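Re: duplicated header lines in exported structure tokens

Our pipeline writes sequence and tokens for each protein into one text file. With two proteins the header for the second block appears twice in some exports. Here is an export where it did not happen, for reference. First protein block:
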Amino acid sequence: MNNNFSFSIKSIRLDEHYQPSETTRATTNFANLARGEYRQQNLRNALRMIDNRFNALAHWDNPNADRFSVELEIISVDLEVAGQAEPFPSIEVLKTNIIDHHTQERIEGIVGNNFSSYVRDYDFSVLLLDHNKQQNKFSIPENFGDLHGKLFQSFVNSDAYQQHFKKPPVICLSVSDNKTYHRTENQHPVLGVEYQPNESSLTERYFKKMGLEVRYFMPPNSVAPFAFYFVGDLLNDYTNLELISTISTMETFQKIYRPEIYNANAVAGKCYRPNLKNTDHSVTQIVYDREERSQLAVSQGKFAEEHFIKPYRTILERWSANYA
């Protein structure tokens, strides 16, 4: 990166025994599920949903729908600032691994999937809110997302990333409830039917600064499209099993905390507008605290401001200005 910064990567297995560490961002899907009296049941049910969905999509040579299971790792990325004892917990993503029980093979999946970042929390829940408090109309601060985008690209290009992962990340998010999506004629055997949005969004522009393009697909037997953020060629750079590992993992999480969209009882049509007030949906048997999630984004954004943005502002501004 440069002499001021370096990245270090830690991983921990996400299984029914997982317990969030003190440095894990509490808004991550997996940390939210892994707390409270139902934590083990939550995790067990979510992991079963992932395996079932994987086998439904990977149905060839799989007559009993039990050939595969998915193992998940939580990848935590610390940003170390030269001369400082305490590293800053910058990014958390999920890594999928696929177990083929017929061949006893362990197949590497995709890194990314879920995406959590303290600096993104700062940008959206502190900087953007403060910027618009005094405004009569909504606007975006100058250079919004520049630092975060450069930090992310620096991580993906770092020796630490290259040593741990063979391919660039793919991040899978829910669609936006303030855009309309139109079905196209393009169809992929695993990703499904492609949709195109009626306009660009702030999230799209933010992820573009991270070096990521976006395409929207609704996989077979899903009820709504997903946003897939990627580098390179999403359809040709990854195998079907790799893509299925991301779909099965992220569709499960979306069904749990966006049931109005992803567990809706009606399938998205040719012209689709997501609705978070949709009452015609089913709820999973998994306890998830959505209110806590939105509150914590603000507190974590303030943590980033206090422990990273403010103390290293001069270093960060200089590094960002010179980053190629």
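Second protein block, exported in the same file:
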Amino acid sequence: MKMDRKKLRKIVNIFLVIAVACSWLSIFVSASGALMKNGINSLKYFTVLSNLFEGAASIVWLVSSGKNGGRASILAERLKYIAAAAVGLTCAVVLTFLGPLYGYPAMFAGGSLFMHLLTPLIAIAEIIFLSDVEFTRKDNRLVMLSPLIYGVFYLGNNLINGIGEWPDTNDWYLFLAWGYPVGILIFAVICVVTWLLGLMMRKLHRPGKV
């Protein structure tokens, strides 16, 4: 069964690479739904960045998949774990915050269906059911790096360049609508939610069950 699981995981990662590439290409060419900026400007969204991270992590895993137990293989597993938490955060925020705010049809329009829902769910399921690595508490803490780095960029950009006015605002997620203290609190909560997603994957992890 081990070889069958590995083949299945290769198929999953190839699918993730294609899904991420195609969904971003569709948004790059023509913005849709809640992602209202196309081209390079689409890179301002955590949704796009986290999905591209997942795609890159999938490529790294595919390249290193033949190196069983090697350092490159372990690094690839950790990248996949961190990336799964990042896209999982995207899905969680859409389902609980952005969906009610903007409407779920907008959240799942076009390439956003994959970026906001399908890719995150597949990435999380891969870690839970197909990964052979036992992730540690340190790995769990590392998943917070993605939202932390993005939060520093997001808040820093607003401090330096100003919030602006809609639709050309630098506060495109409206996290600062209630002021910077609330915005900082939101990002702190987001980091905790990402940690909880990592913890969930660790606790539900079932290596060798598929």
